[in-house]
Amino acid sequence: MELIRKTVLNVETTYVDGGKEAAKPLKMVAAAAVIKNPWAGQGYVENLTPEIRRIAPILSEHLTKLILDEVGSGEAVEAFGKSAVVGLNGELEHASALMHTLHFG
Q1: CA–CA separation, 82 vs 24, rounded Å?
Q2: What are the angstrom distances between the C-alpha of 75 and each of 12, 15, 22, 32, 64?
Q3: How many angstroms separate the CA atoms of 11 and 64, rounded?
Q4: What is this structure's pTM?
Q5: 10 CB contacts (<8 Å, ≥6 apart)?
Q6: Distance between CA 8 and CA 54 in Å, rounded?
Q7: Angle made by CA atoms 92, 94, 96, in degrees to the nearest 5
Q8: What CA–CA distance (Å, rounded) separates 82 from 103?
Q9: What integer pLDDT is reported at residue 28 of this predicted model?
Q10: Residue 97: which residues within 8 A CB-CB, separation 6 or more?
């Protein structure tokens, strides 16, 4: 897979919180991907759309599959969040553009 350099899946299960045992253990699953920023070093880019349309569907499908393979189904997901980090030579707008365009299935 050329777009995604690497991924990580983290699963955290909490059995006891604040000294109280949970009636049902809380499982939190996080999936992350490392990709090359296609806009790195370009400064302000007028139109991010072409690269977003190329990257977002692949990235979202891959990360969603990692999570669903772990939890079993979409019905098992109670909540979700998204975040992004931009490295050197990138802009905050680059992360925001991809993060707010991901289409989770």
Answers
A1: 25
A2: 19, 21, 21, 21, 13
A3: 14
A4: 0.81
A5: 29, 30, 31, 32
A6: 22
A7: 70
A8: 11
A9: 95
A10: 48, 52
With beta carbons less than 8 A apart as the criterion, state whether 105 and 61 touch. Answer: yes
Instruction: Grade residue 80 by pLDDT with cuts at 50, 70 and 90.
Output: confident
* pLDDT value for 19: 96
pLDDT at 99: 78
pLDDT tens, 3-53?
Answer: 999 999 999 999 999 999 999 999 999 999 999 988 988 888 889 989 988
Average pLDDT in the chain: 88
What are the strands, taking DSSP E only, across 1-105?
A: 4-17, 20-35
Taking residue 75's Cβ as centre, other Cβ atoms within 10 Å add up to: 7
Rounded Cα–Cα distance for residues 74 and 77 (Å): 5
